[in-house]
Amino acid sequence: NLFRGGEWTQTLLYWLASFGGLLLVYGVATWLPTLMRAEGYELASALYFVVVFNLGGIVGMLVAGWAADRFGAPRISALWFALTAAGVFLLSVHMPMSVTMVVVFLTGVFLNSAQTMIYATVSIRSDAGDRATAVGWTSGMGRFGAVFGPWLGGQLLAANHGDWGFTAFAVAGLSSMIFIGIAALRGGR
Questions:
Q1: pTM of the predicted protein model
Q2: How many CA atoms lie less than 13 Å away from 145 in the CB half-sphere?
Q3: Phi and psi torsions of 95, nearest 5°
Q4: CA distance readout (Å), 130 to 16, 160, 186
Q5: Least confident of 70-79, 107-116, 119-128, 164-173
Q6: Helix or strand or coil: residue 56?
């Protein structure tokens, strides 16, 4: 049972981390070109950033899997969310194109795999009889963030506050880092 004894706080922390993680994944993936255009990049470059971001995501899954096996999924998830938040926030600064491409790539590396490491953490920290339910509910609760992220980006842009987009998404990354970090410190397995 996901709510027996003190498990409800652990469950809630996983859900909140997943909410913030998927808010970040879908918010950034949806609004990256528009936000980059707002930072002064040309349309072609802004669209190219999406490709580079997703290539980073592919590499990130491979690297995170190896790192999680070596250092533990909870640690990697928390660290990756911190690095994601830093990368997303850096995107709000207009940098030379080559530096921006590296930041976009690295943000893609960390962002996509940070969320996946939440599922790995839930899986290893759950009893065998509750594992599938725990991962399913964590993923399901995260989907609310997947809806909220694109909505949030759209609301900021509609209100002419697109300059706050990267900051809002960076805060979501820091929040997920805190939630998964607390859950990892509390977990006994």
A1: 0.90
A2: 27
A3: -120, 170
A4: 19, 45, 18
A5: 119-128
A6: helix
